[in-house]
Amino acid sequence: MTTRGRRRRPSARPWLRLLEVRSDVDETLDDLFEEAEPAGITVPAGVRDLNMSIFDRVFLGIDDVGASVSVPLIYRNLLIGGEPGGGKSSLLNVIVAHAALSLDCRLCLFDGKQVELGQWESCADVFVGPDIRHAIATLQRLQIVMDNRYRYLRWRLRRKIRPNDKFSPILIAIDELAYYTATIGDKKQREDFSGLVRDLVARGRAVGIIVVAATQRPSSDIIPTSLRDLFAYRAAFRCTTDSSSDIILANGWANRGWSATSIPPTSRGTNLLIAEGGVPLLMRTAWLDDDTCGRIATYAAGRRAEARELRITIPDPNAKKRRPLDVVAA
Ligand SMILES: Nc1ncnc2c1ncn2[C@@H]1O[C@H](COP(=O)(O)OP(=O)(O)OP(=O)(O)O)[C@@H](O)[C@H]1O
């Protein structure tokens, strides 16, 4: 699975080519991942095996020639924007599913609506709903975790986290950034939230803190350029104006023919993704329906509980040498 980062001129109706759907589903997982109904064409989520890792490439969907699109998420952040109903949460869910099945990754979920990511609550260390104080307190704890991890790396003369490290990567998924940065709470709380997110996005990568944030309000007050540019990956779902599209992708892409306004309203799940290649890639995200999400979440939560039990019951011979550096518990 590779991301096609090659330069491609947008054709008149490239999304039509998404009709060629390719499945990357492992046969043994047919009962976990199945094709689902909604907007006509769906792409099943792909899973390589049961022992996934957050250090693996994350399968996101297919591109306009039907080739699978996957990206490494570790050491990166992803910004997702677009009008309501475009499919932002579906992309977020595909990513959270991969992270939930990766026992080497911890989850912190922020969801003002509570139902977009709610099914993953049992897999998460923290689930934050419509509560700005809980949201800020969680981000403050993550900031402490981040600082402790840097102190540890400095102590070990290292620059970044690696697979099977002393501490696990943490995926922070935020569904509707604007809800916390512009809607609930007072001005100070909203500013605190924005400042903390900015810091985690700016400094968290090397210590395995991955921020994936979605917003249906791609405007410069919600996503100032200085914040947008911290996100290495950006996905623009259908937007109503070229400037909204540019706010997500970066200034100038609309003039060069890459505007998310050209995605038809009916083509849900389709987006322009800027990832490794650095140029927009037209793609359709994989789709996980509610039942499938629920079953994956139950399965992942069970595996996580087993792993926790193993960690608790098997005495660690190196336990004394360890420094209790970070804990992110609910
Ligand atoms: N990848 C996809 N394949 C097929 N249909 C999809 C896909 N993604 C989304 N849809 C359809 O679009 C609907 C809305 O998707 P979703 O909730 O992800 O949008 P959203 O952008 O997050 O909306 P909001 O901003 O209101 O939360 C889904 O219920 C589904 O019917």
Automatic annotation (TrEMBL):
Keywords: ATP-binding, Nucleotide-binding. InterPro entries: FtsK/SpoIIIE/SftA (IPR050206), FtsK_dom (IPR002543), P-loop_NTPase (IPR027417). GO terms for molecular function: ATP binding; DNA binding. Residues 55-246 form the FtsK domain. ATP binds at G82, E83, P84, G85, G86, G87, K88, S89. PROSITE patterns: FTSK. It comes from the Bacteria. It holds the Pfam family FtsK_SpoIIIE. This is FtsK domain-containing protein. It comes from Dactylosporangium siamense.
